[in-house]
Amino acid sequence: MTARGQILGLAHSDEDLVEFLRRAGIEDAGPLLDNPRAVTWRGGRAHEYEAKR
């Protein structure tokens, strides 16, 4: 997870993302997860965290 150019960590769930965003100063970030202007999902589909083999 990267926010404002800073690496915050590796998310394993939506809850992880919300917590990283909270630490970055964004309260109530849950609704942002489905906003493509706010969140860019990379390496897979949105809300999927399992590693691809």
Give a written overview of the molecule:
With 53 residues, this protein is of the alpha+beta class. The chain has one domain (1-53). Helices cover 19% and strands 8% of the residues. The protein has one helix spanning 14-23; strands spanning 2-3, 6-7. The protein has a two-stranded antiparallel sheet with strand order 1-2. Strand 1 and strand 2 (6-7) form a beta hairpin. It is globular and about 30 Å long. It starts with a strand and ends in a 30-residue tail after the last helix. The model has no long low-confidence stretch (mean pLDDT 88).
User: Unreliable runs, pLDDT <50, ≥5 residues?
Assistant: none
Structural class by secondary-structure content: alpha+beta
- Our count of helices gives 1
Give the overall pLDDT as a whole number: 88
| Major sheet | 2 strands, antiparallel
Shape: globular
What is the terminal-to-terminal distance? 21 Å
Order of the strands making up the biggest sheet: 1-2
Query: What's the number of extended β-strand segments?
Result: 2
Query: How many domains, in number, for the residues?
Result: 1
Could you spell the SSE succession in H and E letters?
EEH
- Report the radius of gyration as a whole number of Å: 11 Å
Name the beta content range.
5-15%
- What percent of the residues sit in helical stretches (DSSP H or I)? 10-25%
Short description:
19% of the residues lie in helices and 8% in strands. With 53 residues, the protein is an alpha+beta fold. Strand 1 (2-3) and strand 2 form a beta hairpin.
